[in-house]
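Q: Could you fold this chain for me?
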Amino acid sequence: MLLTVTHTTRYAFAEKVSHGLQRLRLKPKSTHGQDVLEWRMDLAGAKREAAYDDQHHNHIDLVSIEPGAPEVVITCSGTVRTVDNSGVTGIHFGHMPLWCFLRPTPLTRAGNRVRQLVASIDADRSNTLDYLHALSRTISEQVEYVPGTTDVGTTAEQALTAGKGVCQDHAHIFISAGRLLDIPMRYVGGYLKMDDKVEEEAGHGWAEAHVAGLGWVGFDISNAICPDERYIRVATGCDYGEAAPVTGIAVGAGETRLDVHLSVGEKLVGMQQQQSAGGGGQQQVQGG
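A: Sure. Below is the predicted structure, expressed as structure tokens.
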């Protein structure tokens, strides 16, 4: 599948910024299941200072905010070819050893509710893949997808206790539970092509578990499926904080307003267009 992405992030500042730095995790990389054919990033109100790969092998653009800039606008666009690998990303690579993905983080530290969740799963733990599918289904049943009920600081324990959240919360609960069973887990941030719309309000988040014999396997708990050709992986981390699209500081900015515009669509060419005209459908999915 050929997916096209246009992603605009706008930060408007109430006061004049005296100094600011931002880490941008917005550029996907060619890896198992996806090939980045083209990608462009344009900046207004900021300039690129450096580009590098972080400890998770994510591409990072480090940008500085121009002093006095009233706003920063980051516009990304590109085309990515994807295939369906049934959620399997494959072998682990990068600078982080697998044991690092077993340690709890503030957002994924397990409390009583997560421990109760793990104990309640009626599945054979010796079959890791089957158990993880059962865990994903149970989280989806117990935590209703309700946008606007949580924020980026909500922990797995808090979302599970409340019984509602969004894709980030589903992923954090899944990660928290898996680590209790000594399964390396990580958060994935990226894009998802929706079946019913092109314009979206935000990117998407899901989780990956490291399964012996397969490597990293993705689980989208919010949609109860393993990622397929509609997904673009952009960044990974031990939790959302390490895979967030934009992180940084802006000194003197005052109140900051954030606006995001995102569109993810399919580029139909040749035979694809003829096949599309013949009908066919896919499971409906929801974004993060």
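A (continued): The first strand starts at residue 2 and ends at 13.
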